[in-house]
Write a structure and sequence with these properties.
about 200 residues; alpha+beta; 2 domains; 6-stranded antiparallel sheet; 4 helices; 11 strands
């Protein structure tokens, strides 16, 4: 028996992987972890694709959910629009809030649906499509209190780089001088290691 309710979700459009969003400074907002993908100290991530669109039926009504790009204090992040039966909800930063606000307008009740579940992230067929054609599937591992996001792994013959190469990219968020900061480490073609 599943741990959570399963929904019938149709992927209308898989959306786009945008390098500047999914592998840039705002990457932390454009990937989602799913409980089935966690193992030990490593968490594999699923992309939240720009313009991704799904349809889910809740209580006999078809809800369409779309991912758009919005601007926040933390850069460009996903925004969610939910539509049902001619009613369009407000643009929300939370997938769960987008679905539940439209549901409340339709049914006049405060049901709580998990946004990622009704968007289809837990459905293997949809996950497979979302993971297809990725330049690199991001993952997270913990190092002390830090969650390190691995956004690319390159390789080289350079011992002084521990054989890392062009394409290696990691990121983490840390409070520095009382401000939330994103740190990115990347190796590029013209990279040089100095003493």
């Amino acid at each position: 028996m599943p741990k959570h309710k399963e929904y019938v979700v149709t992927l209308i459009s898989p959306g786009l992987i945008v390098d500047a969003l999914h592998y840039g400074p705002s990457c932390h907002s454009w990937w989602i972890s799913r409980p089935s993908e966690k193992c030990e100290n490593l968490i594999f991530l699923h992309p939240i694709r720009l313009n991704m669109k799904t349809l889910v039926t809740l209580k006999g009504q078809d809800f369409i959910i779309e991912v758009v790009k919005i601007f926040s204090n933390y850069g460009q992040i996903p925004g969610y629009i939910c539509k049902c039966d001619g009613i369009q909800g407000e643009l929300c930063e939370s997938l769960t809030a987008a679905v539940n606000s439209v549901y409340k307008k339709i049914f006049h009740t405060n049901a709580k649906y998990s946004g990622p579940a009704v968007m289809g992230f837990d459905i293997p067929v949809i996950s497979e499509v979302l993971l297809k054609d990725l330049p690199f599937r991001a993952f997270i591992f913990s190092l002390g209190k830090l969650n390190i996001w691995v956004l690319g792994i390159g390789k080289s013959n350079k011992n002084e780089w521990n054989f890392a190469g062009t394409g290696y990219k990691t990121s983490f968020i840390y409070i520095y001088q009382k401000q939330r900061c994103v740190f990115v480490q990347e190796l590029e073609d013209d990279c040089q290691v100095t003493d």
